[in-house]
Each structure stands twice: as structure tokens, then as C-alpha cells.
Write a structure and sequence with these properties.
Largest interface: A-B, 72 and 71 residues
Oligomer: homodimer
Chain lengths: 409, 409
DNA sequence: TCGTACTTGTCCACCCGCACAACAAATTCT
DNA sequence: AGAATTTGTTGTGCGGGTGGACAAGTACGA
């Protein structure tokens, strides 16, 4: 839902104002704090126009005037006034639903995590149980929220396939969920009605890394996440690749070896059967019930075993297909691929270099996430914040004020 | 480059006018002929605004008033005046560079092919030879062009990987070209200086099918082209997927069978080694020198042989990986896949259904191109026309008037 | 220490472009 | 033929970005 699709519509002047106000807020959000002078050059608008927009943002209670960034002051001239996120400005709830635990945070503009809480998720938990657990965490997290701070929405990261039209969880294999309307469940448990956005964890990882991680300024990147299942979030040309239903990026089921092991999807030799959590757990003789904590197990290794090195090569070979398909500038390795990259990075790189075409290979770089294990959580915050950048006024109109009181009552 | 990437810029009112004029022209271009009433509802602007824009288009010599579309007239009320492409309106040169022949056309707005010519391309021809040949075809094609019709640019479809930053042909395996600046070569042979755009043939096929083929109104589609090599053009969310360097869509080198045949790319068992032109030619015992005319050979078959059916299944299996990755709504089978789809379509469909994930599978459809074998040519015209839709006034400013005279002199 | 140069914020008039309303024109329906 | 309907045309109004003039605030140099 990044840049809304105005497929062929004209632009009237009201839309201009909306767009400019939203874009300005996006810049403030991206930088956390920014001077009006920088905004004028970034947006290519006149000083007076920026002044008007900043004034509107302030009167909406979103931003506030900041002292001219005391630090690096360069050149002569009057210092430019800073625009900063207001202390009790709008916020969102971000939920990272993992296979074994849920993390919930209240996040403000600028990606600031204001409160955070987490709880284990019972294995094979019913959706409504998990929903109740998440709702409890949300109550906890808004406990200290200032009454003036409006809640714009809730963003939820899901380890599975999410239909983009309505946020239905079509399939979350490792939660054993089919067609679950988790957004509705959480809202019902809270007794609230705010906009809820759900998306795949890898998609959100990509979004977060693009907005405030290693991918800032890089418009073609892929976030490959190893989390029991293997998935990818793709950003191309600065936009999220969603696909017709929202299921794009299912790289775990790329054909890898037609003679390979059977996959839970019904096929044989999917990439996931080689580099997925269960395959790796088996390779390093890790008990199956600890697959969810595979990254911690892997972090315990200090030297790569031959099995792990083979896995690294397989990761590289799979990445080669991905790189050939998408030609990204950056591939971010998330989930337990993080740990693996630190252990057998050279094997991954070698496997990639061996199988990728020269042209896409020369411009691609592998890297670790810049946000550690918070990528998906912060990505969930981003999609919930998104409406603010499309139309700040409208988004604040539908936002919820004094959430704490409403949840108490 | 559909909606240009104003990455974070603001919109001033000059940009509004540009955008609206360009969008209006895009609609006229898409429909060929359209009424002002339709334009008002499509663009969501006021009648009078549309009137102003249409007036500007007419005074630029791009469009002209048309009688109210004599045909289906519905409802009461004054009939709406039509907007049609002007007879001597702007045009472009489209070049479809094939492995064995080059097709050149002069194409006007609305995708109308005004003149066309073609010539064989010598096997292993040097780039400058091919360039001279193409230049001759261009001269031929502008022979009868009205002097008033400005030439906006040249678009060239290339069977290979094209760098998007400058249009350099990095690799065209079946022409045996490496790092060829074909655009410059053609311009030099013509002694002209007009904007030249180059792109991969599959990318352009996707673009053309999306603009005026079977993919009209479908924003997530893939055009898979079998043309000696196998490539794909991807349109997602209505935008071309280009990738960092412009090489996205190299599906021919997806890993298909690690124990398979060696591929010219240096690997083993790429999809192309199973379903590429040479593999198919071998399977049906077609002499290697007729690979370029494989579609004609295939059209000679009236019943599918077991070898072809196996190939069909392999195509389906490969498409499954593509569908899992991109989740398109439509997959268009171009090149000799057209002939194959007519022969062994059920095997292709079965192979796809067998291997794709349920969620992406349920919304995807396979189909033949709506533009036959002209997809790439018309796509080349589209990229050449593209600047007109971004800023008609500027594009006409750089256009070349009275091309015929200039080429003669 | 003071003056100059430079950059930015603020205020103003101005212009551009879209919206809106009123009227005229053209066609269908009754 | 007249009513209803839809659209083109025209003039006015308004929103919003632009640009200039001036003030404010800082750095640099004498």
C-alpha cells in the first residue's frame, strides 16, 4: 500500500495538498528530526510552502518545533528550525507474531519503540487464544500512553500468507492456521475498532530495512527470512512487491532439487526442504522441538561444521535463482539466516557467485539486517503508519484518542 | 517507468498540469478514441478542466476533434465530442530485433502501425552491420511520413539483457553480442539525434500486452517468452519490474534440475536447458539451424508427441516456481510457447497446477498473447512513446520534425 | 567588537489551475 | 413537439504554490 495506485486519475489541488503534507511527514518520519531547510531542498518546494505545511503538521499535533539540531552546524546563515515528532504525537501498535512468541510494541513516528512487551505463544494454539494473548499484551503496552496520543492503527506481522485485499491469513503453516481473520479476532478481544493491517513477516522485514535499516536509499532489495519456513519480502523500484493476492515472495517453494525430500506443500525438493528450519535442525542434530529457537542454537556454534557449510552452499544456490529473477541491489538475510551468514557467509557468497548470472551478480550485495531481529516488528509499525503518509488529516480523523481509557472501560 | 518515481518530491502546480495532460493523453492512447465525458469520469476531474486539457492537446497537434463515435450511443443527452489521435500526430520508430530478422515500424499514438518493414539479420552479424540494416529499414519506414508528424523517439526490443541506466546491451547470447551500445550505433548510422530506448523483448512483451493486449486492466502479469532463450517480463502493481540494473526476469536460468544438462551460462540444469529453443528442437528432431523458426516448425504439428508433452510438463513446473515467486494474475505465453500452448496446453496447465502453491494458483490464469507475435514490437513503441505521457509538452520539444527530409539530406 | 555575507523565517501580493454554477446545445424519450 | 437528460462553454471563485521584500539569526573577517 505504499504509494497508492492512482491508476489514471487526475490530480486536483486538494490531492496536491494531501500529497505534499503526507510526503513531508514521511520525510520527518524517516529522519526523526529534520530542518525545514532540508525539507525545502528534498521536496523541491518553496520555503513558504514548506512553512505552511510544517505549520499544519504542528497544528495537527503531529510535529513540534525543535531547536536547530545543536550538533553539526555548517556554513553561515540563520540556522534552520527543526521539525521533530511531537512527544504525544500519533502512535501505532505493532505486533510481531512469531511461531513461539508474540512481541507487541507501541511505536511512534520516527520508528521509536515507546513500550514493548512479549509473551510465549502456546504450540498449536487456537487463533482466539493467541488473539487474547496479543490483546493482553496490547493493553499492557498502552498502559502508559499519554491520553493525547492518538492511536492510528495496528500492524501485525504474520509468519504466513496474508491476503492483501482483506488481511485474511490464508495459511500459516507453523501455527497450523488456515483462513484465519486474525485482525478481527484481536479487535474483538480488545473491544475496539481501529484500522488493522496484516502482512507477511518477510514482506515487513523488507519494508523496515528499506525504511530505517540497511536498505535506506536502496530501492531494489530483498529480505530473505529463515523462520522455520523460508520466505522473502521484495521491494522493487521502492515499492513493495505484493502480487495479485499478496502472496508474492514465496521463495521457500522454489524448485531446488526435483529428486529431493518431500515438502509439506506436497511437492518434492523445494528450497525449503534444504535450507528450512527443520532441515537445518536435522543437519546439526538439534531436537525438533527447538526449531523455533534455531537462531540461538546456531549462535552457540563457534565454527562451521561440514553440514552447515553444505547448507550455506545450498542457500547460496537458491539465492542465485532469486537474484537472477529479481536483480536486487541488496539481499538482507534475516531470521536464522542471520546466524548462518555469520557462520558460513563465505559458503553462501560462494554458492551465489557460482550460480548467478554475471550481470545481476555484479551489482548485488549480501548483508545482515540493520535492525537485528526487530525488522518484522518495525515493519508492522510501518504498515500501520502508512495511512498517515497518504493523508495525515484523514488518518488522524479515524484515529482513536485516549486509548488507555477506552481499553480500561 | 509508468508513473515516474518522484521519490519524495513535492508536487507543485506546474507538475499537476503536466501530470494531468500526460494522463489524459495516456487514456486517449489506450483507447484510441474516447469521449470527453468518459475522460471526466475516468480522471475524476471537472468537465471544464478536461475541456481545457483537451484544448491544449489539440493546439499541440496531438489530438483532434472526432465525431461522437457514431456507433453505440446510449442514453439521452447531448452526445459527447470525441478525442482522437491526430492524423499527423507524433509517432515513434519501433524496432524488434530478433535472432534472425529485424522488424521496424513507424507507430503512432494509439498503437497504430503506420508503416512496417523487415529484413533478415545475418547469423553472427556484427553489431554495426545489424545497425546499418536497421537504419535502412528506418529510412524505408519514414519514407511516407507526413512532414508535420514529429518523431518522438526510437524504441528497440532486444533479445538479451539491457542495462536500464543507459540502454547498453550487456549480453545478447543468441546474437553473440557483449556490451554493445546499439542505440548509439543506429543513431550514428542514421545521422540523427533522437531519444532512443532499449529494453528486453520479454519486458516489452509484457508492457504491450498490459497496454493493449490480453492484460488490459490486469496489474499483475508476467509475459514468458520462449525465443531460443527463455525470459520473462514482469509487471507488478501496474509497474514494470526492472531490478537494480534492469535485468529482472531472467527466468531461463532458474534452477530446475541440478543433475540436468549443462547450460551456456555455466551452470547445470537451468530451466532453459529443458524448455529452451535448443532443447525443444532436439526433442522433436528439428535441425539446429532452424531453431530461430521453431514456432513455424511447431505449428506444423497437429498432435502432441510424447516428447512435446514432457516439455509441456516441464514448462508447467517452471511456471509453478514463477507463480510462487510473483503471484501474478495472468501469465502470457509468448514466442514459441504460443505454439506449444496450443499443442500441449493441458500438460502445461497440469504441470503448473501440480507444483504451484494453492493460494497463488487459484488466482492465476495462463493465456496466449493478445497481440500475436507483435508484442515486443508494440512494446518497443510503448517505451518510445512513454515520455509523451510524462510530459507531452517537453517530449514534443525534443521531438524531431520532418524526419523524412532530415534522413534524405 | 563590529560589520559584512549568508542563509532562513515570515509576510505579502500574485499567478496558475481546478472547481463550480449558469447557460446553451444536442440528443432521447414521451 | 415538449420534457428530460447529458454535455460543451463561459465566467467567477478559491485553494495553494511562487517569488520578492524584509527581518532574524549565525559565521567569518577586519
Amino acid at each position: 500500500m505504499t504509494a497508492q495506485r492512482r491508476s489514471g486519475l487526475g490530480t486536483n489541488q486538494e490531492a496536491v495538498r494531501r500529497h505534499n503534507l503526507g510526503t513531508l511527514l514521511r520525510h520527518v518520519h524517516g529522519a526523526g528530526q529534520i530542518s525545514r531547510a532540508e525539507l525545502t531542498s528534498l521536496m523541491g518546494l518553496n520555503r513558504s510552502t514548506i512553512a505552511g505545511l510544517v505549520g499544519e503538521l504542528e497544528s495537527l499535533g503531529i510535529s513540534e518545533r525543535a531547536t536547530p539540531a545543536g550538533g553539526a552546524r555548517q556554513g553561515a546563515g540563520r540556522p534552520s528550525a527543526g521539525v521533530a515528532i511531537a512527544g504525544d504525537g500519533p502512535c501505532v501498535i505493532a505486533v510481531d507474531l512469531g511461531v513461539d512468541r508474540a512481541v507487541v510494541a507501541r511505536v511512534g513516528l520516527g520508528g521509536r519503540v515507546l513500550q514493548q512487551a512479549q509473551a510465549p505463544v502456546p504450540a498449536e494454539g487456537e487463533a482466539w487464544q493467541v488473539g487474547a494473548s496479543v490483546a493482553a499484551l496490547i493493553r499492557e503496552v498502552v498502559e502508559d500512553a499519554p491520553a493525547a496520543s492518538p492511536l492510528v492503527g495496528i500492524g501485525i506481522s504474520v509468519p504466513g500468507m496474508v491476503r492483501r485485499s482483506d488481511g485474511l491469513i490464508r495459511l500459516a503453516p507453523n501455527l497450523e492456521w488456515h483462513d484465519v481473520s486474525f485482525g478481527g479476532i484481536v479487535l474483538a478481544a480488545l473491544g475496539l475498532d481501529v484500522p488493522v493491517s496484516l502482512a507477511n513477516d518477510a514482506d515487513l522485514g523488507a519494508l523496515a530495512e528499506h525504511t530505517r535499516g540497511v536498505g535506506v536509499g536502496i530501492d531494489d532489495l530483498i529480505y530473505v527470512s529463515g523462520n522455520v519456513g523460508v520466505g522473502a519480502g521484495v521491494i522493487m523500484g521502492g515499492h513493495r512487491l505484493e502480487g495479485a493476492g499478496g502472496y508474492a515472495g514465496e521463495v521457500g517453494h522454489l524448485r531446488f532439487d526435483p529428486g529431493g525430500r518431500p515438502c509439506h506443500c506436497g511437492n518434492r525438493g523445494c528450497w525449503e526442504t534444504e535450507v528450512g528450519g527443520h532441515a537445518i535442525a536435522e543437519a546439526i542434530h538439534c531436537p525438533p522441538d527447538k526449531v523455533a529457537q534455531l537462531d540461538e542454537v546456531l549462535d552457540g556454534f563457534d565454527s562451521p561444521s561440514p553440514e552447515l557449510r553444505r547448507t550455506g552452499t545450498a542457500i547460496g544456490h537458491g539465492l542465485a535463482s532469486i537474484v537472477n529473477m529479481f536483480n536486487p541491489r541488496l539481499v538482507v538475510l534475516g531470521g536464522y539466516f542471520r546466524s548462518l551468514y555469520q557462520l558460513v557467509g563465505t559458503d553462501i557468497e560462494a554458492g551465489l557467485a557460482d550460480r548467478a548470472l554475471p550481470a545481476p551478480l555484479e551489482s548485488v550485495r549480501l548483508t545482515l539486517p540493520g535492525l537485528g531481529s526487530d525488522s518484522a516488528l518495525l515493519g508492522a509499525a510501518e504498515i500501520a503508519l502508512e495511512p498517515l503518509f497518504v493523508d495525515p488529516v484523514a488518518a488522524l480523523g479515524t484515529a482513536l484518542v485516549d486509548v488507555r481509557a477506552r481499553l480500561a472501560g
